[in-house]
Amino acid sequence: MDKFMALAVAEALRGAKKHHGGPFGAVVVRKGKVVAKAHNRVVVTNDPTAHAEVLAIRAAAKKLKNFDLRDCVLYASCEPCPMCLAAIHWARIKKVYFGSCSLDAKKIGFDDELFYEILNGKKKSPVKMVRVGAGKEYLVPLKFWAHDMKAKKY
Amino acid sequence: MDKFMALAVAEALRGAKKHHGGPFGAVVVRKGKVVAKAHNRVVVTNDPTAHAEVLAIRAAAKKLKNFDLRDCVLYASCEPCPMCLAAIHWARIKKVYFGSCSLDAKKIGFDDELFYEILNGKKKSPVKMVRVGAGKEYLVPLKFWAHDMKAKKY
Questions:
Q1: Which of A24, A104, B51, B118 has its CA 20 to 30 A from that of A145?
Q2: Cα-based torsion angle of the residue sequence A42, A77, B47, A95 in order, rounded to the nearest 10 degrees
Q3: CA distance A126 to B18
Q4: Model-level pTM?
Q5: Which residues does residue A133 pair with via DSSP β-bridges, in sequence order?
């Protein structure tokens, strides 16, 4: 197994053994060096967003003082869920290596695959989305940003 | 405007004026009371995952000491992006109210709509996903979790 992937899998097992959360690990690598590694901490931190990939991205971005990680690669012990995949897109990471897949995660009770099916329209979401209005007042923050020359665009 | 939605929009504008990040705000409400509110902090924290909804969910879960927020409702000044929508699913939130939409965000340069199109298969992703293997060694953490009676399942 590739050394970075082995590290992601070891991190996954370490987190599971510590009962920190689901059995998932991730490593962010830049120019052949580990920038950050993390395992799922949903249970121990009571944070539903504390997936391995999100935590590794957050740690790497903090370390590099840059929310743009386009020169980094992510290794994930298991296929990233839709939340993590979207986070990878926001971080502008261009390549992701993964080992087990969302169907493997499904077999042990995780909803990654279901959420993929919801996001691509194959399954109905349990979340009711209600657009309350499209009035001008909702556009005020967006217009402020668009005209603010000091805003750092991303 | 509904008072919670007004709060989300005010939070969005406040964050933009402080140059903390994109012009987005979110509020988590439980039984008619605000549990947490947040605005986007991507720029000020160098965290690509620091969207308003993610931060509000994290803060609410921390406050309630529970990663399961199924008795909460989310108000977002703008339609949640795919990362935030998946986070909402993981948090088991059942209802989301929002004001402006991902097309409004697109108009001022944000990729929410693009990422939705990527996730539902309409557009090609800039992220190359490489499955490096499906061997037994990748399943070790998952199998440990599945057989661990002490693991808190979620």
A1: B118
A2: -160
A3: 35
A4: 0.97
A5: none
For residue A80, the 8-state DSSP code is P
Distance CA B104, CA B27 (A): 20
Tokens of A38: 């993390």
What's the full length of chain B, in residues? 154
Closest approach of B27 to chain A, Cα-based (Å): 14
Radius of gyration of chain A (CA): 18
Radius of gyration, alpha carbons of chain B: 18
Interface test with B, best of A3, A67, A70, A150 (most B CBs within 10 A): A67
Question: From CA A139, how far away is CA A152, in angstroms rounded?
Answer: 19
* A14 to chain B: closest CA residue: B141
Q: Is the ipTM of this complex over 0.85?
A: yes
pLDDT tens-digit readout, A29-86: 999 999 999 999 999 999 999 999 999 999 999 999 999 999 999 999 999 999 999 9
Q: How far apart are CA B49 and CA A52, in angstroms?
A: 13
Residues A16, A10 contacting (CB under 8 angstroms): no
Q: Do residues B53 and B80 lie in contact, with contact meaning Cβ atoms separated by under 8 Å?
A: yes
